[in-house]
Amino acid sequence: MRKKVMAVLLTGMLTAVNIMPVCATEAETENAEQETVLAEETSEENAQETAEESESDTGIVIPRGNMVDVEVIDLSLHKETTGDFTAVYAYENPFKGQDTSQGVVIEFYAKPTWEVHELGAIFAINGSGAYDGKLYFSPGSYLGFNSPGFGGYFDANLFNYTIVTDYIKDGALIRIELMPEGFAVYANDELCYDQTILDNSLEGAGDFTSSSDFSSILEWISGAEALYFGYGSWWNGVGANEANVNLSQISFRLQDGTVLMDQLRCDKDLVESLGGSVDEVSEETVSEIKLADVDVEIFDIESVSYEGKSVLPVMTAVVVIVVILTVIVVAVVCKPRKYD
């Protein structure tokens, strides 16, 4: 009889010990799943709030269509046939909210496709309200800035609204550096002109000179809302001001090398509806980028923080209690008894 009782007790004890880790694992898994769901919901809510705030703050319409990464965009596209054309490529200004005090760099490859419209825009940064103004670079290699609240205006490499020198020619990698002490424009790494061009009335004009402080322009850049390609200068007339340029290899970065934007995107459906073609980034390239991101997430353990309570101490205490009770019961059962 005692052997049967001991066998039953031992079996119960072993079963309890085996069940405890399973219960602990299930509890931890359930907690992890709940935390994951909560994190995803919070992330989605934050993303939605950010998008809504971004759209309301900027006052521009960010493309919400079938956006794809592309290698090249055709800046001559628009839907209008008369009057002024509207933007096809509109984005939030990548410099907005950044520390631009040390300078910014804007780089791109421009390939002309037809006649040069010197007053159009390859790119333009636009601001409104307190940051009302424009900064733009034209297919005629003309760099312009105008903001009444941030120092006034300058026109560089322009005389009587005509080209002074075309540095893009058949195609060039253009780099524009804006710094507190001035600016510089390069074509294929060769200096085209800098702020000293403003001292020559046949090549430049405006409120700024070579000795001016250009910090106000950098401040304006950090507050302006919109970035456009193929649109956004003062002149947007159909047939007269289109940027007949294929644009690629863009890079918007801070002077210290921090890259803020280096991938062209466009609304595939919109571009194709206007008769353009979309040269999408290859899936292989996208996969390589995603794989690199995953590798970082897997191996960068220190970048992940964990919060939670382990159930191991509780399970250990339960097991100890079960063992003690079992020993007591066994001792009682095995205690010798005397019968009269």
Write the layout of secondary structure elements.
Blueprint: H1 2-58, E1 67-70, E2 72-74, E3 89-92, E4 104-112, E5 123-127, E6 133-137, E7 143-147, E8 152-156, E9 158-159, E10 162-163, E11 172-179, E12 182-187, E13 190-194, E14 204-206, H2 215-221, E15 226-229, E16 245-254, E17 259-261, E18 264-267, H3 268-273, H4 283-299, H5 312-334
Antiparallel strand pairs: 1-18, 2-16, 3-15, 4-11, 4-16, 5-6, 5-15, 6-7, 7-8, 8-14, 9-10, 11-12, 12-13, 16-17
Q: Helix- and strand-based class?
A: alpha+beta
CATH architecture name = Sandwich
Average of pLDDT: 79
Q: Name the CATH class.
A: Mainly Beta
What ranges have pLDDT less than 50 throughout 5 or more consecutive residues?
21-25, 36-58, 285-307
The profile of the biggest β sheet is: 7 strands, antiparallel
* CATH fold-level topology: Jelly Rolls
Overall form: elongated
Number of domains: 1
N-to-C series of helices and strands? HEEEEEEEEEEEEEEHEEEEHHH
Distance between the termini: 20 Å
Fraction of residues in β-strands: 25-35%
Helix content: 25-40%
